Amino acid sequence: MSTLLEIKNLTVKYDGEENIINNINISVGHKEIIGIVGESGCGKTTLIRTIINLLPKHASIVGGEIIFDGKDLCHFNKEQWRQLRGKEIGMVFQNPSSYLNPIMKVEKQIIEAIRNHKNVEVKIAKEKAKETLQKMNLLDTERIMNSYPFQLSGGMKQRVAIAMAMVMEPKLIIADEPTSALDVTTQLQITNELIQLRDKFNTSIIMVTHNIGCAAYMSDKIMVMNNGRIEEFAATSRILNDPRKEYTKQLLGAMPKLKGAEGW
Ligand SMILES: Nc1ncnc2c1ncn2[C@@H]1O[C@H](COP(=O)(O)OP(=O)(O)OP(=O)(O)O)[C@@H](O)[C@H]1O
Ligand SMILES: [Mg+2]
After folding, report:
1. Cα of 113 from ligand 1 centre, angstroms
2. Do strands 59-68 and 229-235 pair parallel, antiparallel, or not at all (unpaired)?
3. Residue 129: domain span
C-alpha cells in the first residue's frame, strides 16, 4: 500500500512544559484507517492538531517531519495551509456545534465550504452538497439543507459535519473523538458510515477514540499512545491477538463489553 502520510521523529511541546509528543513515527497508507487510542491527556489531540497545523500559538514543533502526499507540511505557509486544509485533509471534531455556524442554514454552510476551494456555480455546489449528505445517510436532504444546526439531533449534526469534511473528497480525514458525545447506537451507525466513505472515496482516516472497541472495529491499524509516546503501532489483529505491551493489555482488559451493539 502506498504511503499518504508519514510522520518522522515528531516531538511537540507547549511553552514552559516538557515535551507532550515524543518522537512519534507513523505512516498512513492510502485508503487505510488508523485508530489512535490512549488515556485522557496522553497527547492524541495534540498529535492530530499538529498534523493539520491547528496547534495554539504557545505550542511548537521541537523536531521531526510531517510528509503528506509528498509535501513537507512543517514548512507550509498560510496560503498553502488554506488550500490544503478542508480540501486535501478534512477534519471532524467531537462537538459539531463548535464548528458548525449556528446562525447559518446547513445548505449555505456546505455550499460555502465547496466554493471556498472550488470556483463553481451555487447550483452545482448545491447538487454536490445534496449528494454528499445522501452518502452520509441523511436522506431527508431538503429538510436538512433548510435547517439551522440547532434544529438537528446530535447524530445528524455530526453527520452534517462529516459530510462537510467529505464534500471536497479529501485524501485524508482526521477525526478526534467524532462519536464520543453520541449514544452507542448512533456511534455504531456513524462508524459504519465512515467505513463506507472510505470504501466509496478511497479516503484514508485517522480516528482518535477513547473506545478501543471502536478502534478495533473500524481500523486497519491501531496506534496505542501513552504519555506522548507510541506504545505499539501495528495491524489491528496483531494488537488484539498479540498485545506486546503491558499498557495495551490493560487497555484491552478495560474494553467495554457493550450489549446490543453488534460487532463493536
Ligand atoms: N492548549 C494547551 N496548552 C497547554 N497544554 C496543553 C494544551 N492542550 C493540551 N495540553 C496538555 O497536553 C497534554 C496532552 O493533551 P491532549 O489534549 O493532547 O490529550 P488527549 O490524549 O487528546 O486527551 P483527551 O483524551 O482527554 O482528549 C495534557 O497534559 C494537556 O494538559
Ligand atoms: Mg483529545
Report:
1. 29
2. unpaired
3. 95-167
